[in-house]
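README: folding subset

This subset contains proteins for which both the sequence and a predicted structure token string are available. Records are stored as plain text. Below is the entry for Cytochrome c (245 residues), shown exactly as it appears on disk.
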Amino acid sequence: MMKTLFSAVALLASSLAMAAGPTIPLDKAPIDLRDQASLQNGAKLYQNYCLGCHQMQYQRYSRTFKDLGIPEELGMEHLMFTGEKVGDHITNSMPAEYAETSFGVLPPDLTNVARVRGADWLYTYLRTFYVDESRPFGVNNKVFPQVGMPHVLQELQGVPTRAYETRLVDGQSTEVYVGIRTDGSGELSTEEYDRAVADLVNYLVYTGEPTKLESHALGTKVLIFIFIFFVLAYFLKKEYWKDVH
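--- output ---
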């Protein structure tokens, strides 16, 4: 009985620790679902760097092209690589058995990852990989320690390492983590890389809820209708009850 109780307590503590989220502050993701140029660039980055492992089996190419203002001909030429039809879902051709053998687990579908993890988590995660030769893919992550995937955007960012500064803490010299620094070998500058990651996260936020802007617009119209109906109902009530009083 006591063993079962201790096991339950340990499981609860573990669950609470996981629910507590990352141990470092998250950077605010500059999300703007009205910025079609950002969404288009995010889609391009996803197709070129993420789709090889991570599917979006709940998102269709046709819906993506329509919402992002991409002509079907251009979308099929530049964003569809394995002969799919424009009405197909965004999937890859990697066999599940091969993926599990290579990564130890099947790479998750990312259609709804922004709704599960949050935009700020994704934005910080993709910018906090660092070299760690002890890991299978040679990298680790500040937000997701012991991460089991390669840093697929390294050719854009360059080789990232953890940077520390010596500071006085309680009167003692202490090495304090101050962020990620790169060796400058990437195709993008730090500012350009941050913008590219923001575009990618913006796209992931969109795929998590493609109708978000439509829903907000519809909600505004409904509120306006309710307000007009309230005004009409108020004056109708006054007209109806004026003879009673």
